[in-house]
Design brief:
By secondary structure, the chain is mainly alpha-helical. The chain has seven helices and two strands. The longest helix has 28 residues. The protein has one domain. The radius of gyration is 17 Å and the shape is globular. It comes from Actinoallomurus vinaceus. This is RiboL-PSP-HEPN domain-containing protein.
Length: 185
């Protein structure tokens, strides 16, 4: 029986390998940025900021992809439409595998924060989107971002090296927990 600290499937191993590779890539590029000599000017986003943002986007994408692919592997009768977004994934895991993905790890709230940060980066070019700011979602979105320790400046998310490290830990733990829960179905 696999340890609760290691994945139980090839997909889990692959996801953790991707997380490790992306983390190493981020670390090496960040080290290069910190030693690079040059000025960027006040109107240009620093390259290391973009590297942090891209790393967070990639880490969340790996967790998202694993969550979908693992369920589709377990239940081949399902299709991509059944796991199209996080709410559909949550419902599909519960209905088709008996796994409540919100309860398998204590980091669910933090993961939601990283998902919301990723959405702001991808869909709002670094700013919270109109959908994230509408009153019916706003408090929940802010609570998720706070749980993930994502800093905001107005409606702009600020991702730093610590954000990337926390996201790596949360996404990795989620992959392991979900993979092990899937093994029991």
């Amino acid at each position: 029986m696999p340890s609760k600290f290691s994945p139980s499937s090839e997909l889990g191993e692959a996801a953790l390998t991707q997380i490790a590779m992306r983390t190493l890539d981020h670390k090496l590029l960040t080290a290069h940025d910190n030693t690079a000599d040059g000025t960027f000017g006040r109107h240009v986003i620093l390259h290391n900021q973009l590297r942090h943002e891209n790393a967070l986007i990639d880490l969340v994408a790996i967790a998202e992809n694993f969550t979908s692919r693992r369920l589709l592997e377990l239940r081949p009768s399902l299709d991509d439409g059944d796991v199209f977004n996080w709410e559909k994934r949550r419902k599909a895991w519960d209905k088709h595998a008996g796994v409540d993905i919100t309860k398998i790890t204590s980091d669910w709230g933090r993961l939601l924060g990283f998902i919301e940060a990723r959405n702001a980066l991808q869909h709002g070019l670094g700013r919270l989107t109109e959908r994230q700011l509408i009153s019916s979602h706003r408090d929940k979105i802010f609570a998720s971002l706070k749980a993930a320790e994502i800093k905001l400046t107005g409606d702009r998310v600020y991702i730093d090296n610590e954000s990337v490290s926390n996201c790596r830990r949360v996404c990795g733990n989620f992959v392991i927990a979900l993979d092990n829960a899937a093994q029991l179905t």
